[in-house]
Design brief:
There is one protein chain. This protein has about 250 residues and is mainly alpha-helical. It has one domain. Helix content is about 80%, strand content about 0%. The longest helix has 26 residues. The relative contact order is 0.21.
């Protein structure tokens, strides 16, 4: 990697960490599209291995909600892991242009969801039947983009979960999806030893960003911040789509 690419990578990880510190999520959504603008999108996804798994592993076991979360959402966990593994096999075999196009579409789709939100509430009875389907959708999307968040977050919000349960569930799903995704990347040689070392260094940069973002949270109006963030991500998504067709 050249100096410019290294600087861009450090900035992407720091920005992703800062966004996560301010609003509690958004690390892959910010970092991956920026990295994919300067390198193979598959490598960009692989670079998220240590930052994503370490940050979510730390959160998932806090608050003693792990066992209850698994008991409640085990059908979703199974389909999420299975469909992530399936779509990840497709992701590692496609060319860089197609990967860029898929990432761009995922980013633009997420932005559209935020601009035109659909507010629904899901009952306990319906949850039983929806869990496997939502897991499948999240797995298919996450395996080709590392963006498990959009379908998972929308579903968790619709369930009206209590705050601690919400955090435990979301972080668990990110780990469940991340393990087969990053495992597939390692199996196919995308997550090489060098990439893993770079990912470990990136985790330190992410933590610095999270620390700064957490301190900035009290001074930032979250709605305005999210609106500007969506605008920037939308432009990045369009750029990735353009690279996919170029």
């Amino acid at each position: 990697m050249g100096l410019a690419t290294l600087a861009l990578g450090a900035a992407a990880f720091f920005a992703g960490g800062a966004v996560k510190g301010v609003i509690g999520l958004g690390l892959p959504l910010v970092a991956v599209p920026v990295l994919a603008s300067a390198m193979d999108p598959k490598v960009a996804v692989a670079m998220m291995t240590v930052p994503v798994l370490s940050s979510n592993a730390w959160l998932v076991f806090r608050g003693n909600r792990f066992r209850d979360t698994v008991r409640r959402f085990w059908p979703m966990i199974l389909t999420l892991a299975g469909f992530t593994l399936l779509s990840a096999q497709l992701f590692v075999q496609i060319d860089a242009a197609t990967a860029s196009l898929l990432l761009g579409l995922a980013v633009v789709g997420f932005c559209a969801m935020q601009l035109f939100p659909i507010k629904v509430e899901i009952s306990k009875r319906a949850e039983r039947w929806l869990n496997p389907g939502i897991g499948a959708v999240a797995g298919l999307m996450g395996g080709i983009s590392n963006f498990f968040g959009p379908p998972v977050m929308a579903y968790m919000i619709a369930l009206r979960l209590e705050k601690d349960t919400f955090v435990a569930a979301v972080t668990l799903f990110f780990i469940v999806g991340g393990v087969p995704l990053y495992g597939s990347l390692a199996w196919h040689g995308v997550l090489s030893e060098k990439v893993l070392i770079a990912s470990s260094i990136a985790a330190i940069i992410v933590l610095a960003g999270v620390a700064i973002g957490t301190k900035l949270r009290r001074f930032v109006q979250q709605e305005s911040f999210e609106r500007y963030l969506i605008g920037v991500l939308f432009l990045i998504g369009l750029n990735l789509i353009w690279h996919g067709f170029a």
